[in-house]
Amino acid sequence: MSTLAAPLRELSVREERILRYPQLTPSQLRVLQMAADGETCESTAREIGMCVQTVKNHRSDAIMKLGADSMTHAVAQALRRGLIR
Question: Domain ranges in the chain?
Answer without folding.
Answer: 13-80
